[in-house]
Amino acid sequence: MTKTHTRFVKNLLLVCLLPALTGSLSAQIAWKGLQKLEGTWKQSGKASYEKWTVASDTLLSGEGFKIQDDNSRKITETLQLVLKDDGTIVYRATVPDQNDSAGIDFKLTFFTTSSWTFENPAHDFPTKIEYWLQDAETLRATVSGDNEQSFTLWFNKVPELKQLPQRPRTLQGYDVFISSRNTGTVKRFDAFTGQYKGEFGKEQIGNETQDVAIGPDGMLYVTSLQAKNILKFNPADGTFLGNFSQGYDLEKPTKLSFGADGYVYVSQWGQEQKSVVRFNAQTGAFDKDFTGPLAGPLGHVWDRDGNLYVACFFSQDIRKFGPDGTPAGVVSPKDSLKGPSNIWFHASGDLLVADWDQGSIKRFSPDDSVFRYKSAFATGYARLEGTAIGPDGYLYAIDWYLNLVKKLDADSGRSIGVYLEGGGMQQPNALTFWKVKM
User: Fold this and answer.
1) Is the pLDDT higher at 350 or at 100?
2) What backbone phi and psi angles, to 5 degrees, belong to 26?
3) For 255, phi and psi rounded to 5 degrees?
4) pLDDT in tens, 285-295
5) Angle, CA of 396, 401 and 406, to the nearest 5°
6) CB of 241 closer than 8 Å to CB of 280
7) At 37, phi and psi to the nearest 5?
């Protein structure tokens, strides 16, 4: 199992080292104890579960799964505990789309009446999986490897989960706003039918519309290379609500993102000002220059620890900054990007990067403190910049050169076809969805 396979071990259980299995009697005692795992176990503080079922006299069948935002159940791994004819007991895990869908076996080497240790010393990580039943309702899992690598998770037994009704994922009832760079406007479409509903903002934007985003207050925020402020509009009717940002004149602002920390971040492409700066997301008051000078900063995204990642177009790389703005260096491999324009995290934790020059989306996997190139996620664009995950869970990506928006499977990158075109879009470069108020 490589590092990419460590997902499945986050649903396992922990530790005790006692006499090795020496015969069929020992195997039967251990196997009887393992029946205590039957049931559904929820990871503490997470919507992650592991369920075990006694399938036969020699098989415990399990699955790890997550309950997603739409109440659907996503299987993350299939599990088995197997009592073999020779008395050997193995724990086997299979992760979809990994290791050619082959199971990885860990042999039971030690046990007590309430703990079980499984090992595979030939594996890189993990080499050991330890289960420890603290009491009838509490389970602890420790996973470890060489070089003292390990982590521990806690689980509580819960009642059988009923299949929750899945909320419909649809674009019905939404509008989509698209920045039209060369018309200096924001184009509005019915997100469900694709009907063009008009444009607005020409007088305030001037030309070279850049980014569009719905803020925490439900209003629409827009940047333009010709504006010195973040512009604010009412998405219901396109009414201009004034200059939002205050206390700092932006120079050629491009991408903007609302962070979970209460600030809105803006990239600049000016001659003197070429950094990411931030403003208070409620008042619009200038806070600080967050990154210092960068070579063509565009899209940004945060990881779970609050670190900011910035796609730098001219230096052809991704730069990382701590939650306080401390530079952490380049995290993308050299020569892996030609024109990074936008970035976001895949559900797996991989980093996805839209490459404007090469017309593709590239996938990078975390590797210690940096990322390594993994594969092409999507291809077939002339010029690629604006991207967004829609309310329906699909990925929407703009071809700046062909003046259209494509729809993709957000998990696999599979193309579903053209989503929108027309409406007089000219070099569109960003989009955002808004729930229409009825």
Assistant:
1) 350
2) -60, -40
3) -75, 145
4) 999 999 999 99
5) 20
6) no
7) -80, -10
